[in-house]
Structure to design on (250 residues):
């Protein structure tokens, strides 16, 4: 039996129209899901208010953001203020996703600023770490992840540590159809836990990397894997419901 709550977090990335979102929740309602896990969804920023309204009526799913700024306000065109997110009642924010790191060039230092700012406004933070295929094959996995943790979580206030979740997402397994074996993922998750400065045993550590209904069970049965950060499989209500159902009986 897991001592930490299992989380299934859907990262919708830059996907879904209003019509598709409506259909998603219609299907979810029809399935009458009884959740025993934490079910979270991070949609595109412009859809957050709509999902917040829907989630309020269902009461089952928490809504978050895929990113936020390092600053509260100012001349940062196109950025999303953590103050505005908190004001809207957003529960969590994903920071440091591999796509933010690789496509948008976000470094550990700026991610640290984002983490600290989001926590300052009492947003739960899912901080993402992970290695590329080249880094894994060169034997640098643990070195890379330790650096991401040390810099990205530098000066993390002890009184805010309960708001932190960590997601391990091997870059080589995101959107590729490849998935780390349960043993590979557990090895890294256990390493991450040893490197946390606060709340080592209580911190939820998620696995993200081509998670699907047919591979999530073996992952969640590992001691240090407390849930999943899910991309493509979270876009279909039937798949998301199946992931949550499996997570609810672990």
């Amino acid at each position: 039996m897991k001592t930490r709550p299992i989380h299934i977090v859907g990262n919708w990335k830059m996907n879904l129209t209003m019509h598709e979102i409506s259909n998603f929740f219609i299907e979810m309602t029809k399935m009458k899901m009884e959740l025993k896990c934490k079910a979270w969804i991070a949609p595109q920023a412009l859809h957050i208010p709509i999902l917040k309204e829907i989630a309020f009526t269902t009461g089952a799913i928490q809504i978050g953001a895929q990113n936020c700024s390092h600053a509260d306000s100012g001349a940062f065109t196109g950025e999303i203020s953590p103050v505005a997110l908190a004001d809207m009642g957003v529960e969590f924010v994903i920071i440091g996703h591999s796509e933010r790191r690789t496509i948008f060039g976000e470094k550990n230092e700026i991610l640290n600023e984002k983490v600290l700012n989001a926590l300052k406004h009492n947003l739960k933070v899912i901080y993402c770490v992970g290695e590329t295929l080249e880094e894994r094959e060169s034997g640098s996995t643990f070195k890379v992840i330790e650096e991401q943790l040390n810099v990205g979580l530098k000066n993390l206030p002890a009184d805010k540590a309960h708001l932190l979740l960590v997601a391990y997402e091997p870059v080589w397994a995101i959107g590729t159809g490849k998935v780390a074996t349960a043993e590979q993922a557990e090895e890294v998750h256990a390493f991450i836990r040893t490197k946390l400065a606060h709340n080592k045993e209580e911190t939820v550590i998620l696995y993200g990397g081509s998670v699907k209904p047919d591979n999530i069970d073996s992952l969640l049965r590992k001691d240090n894997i407390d849930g999943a950060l899910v991309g493509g499989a979270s876009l279909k209500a039937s798949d998301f419901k199946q992931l949550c159902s499996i997570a609810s009986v672990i």
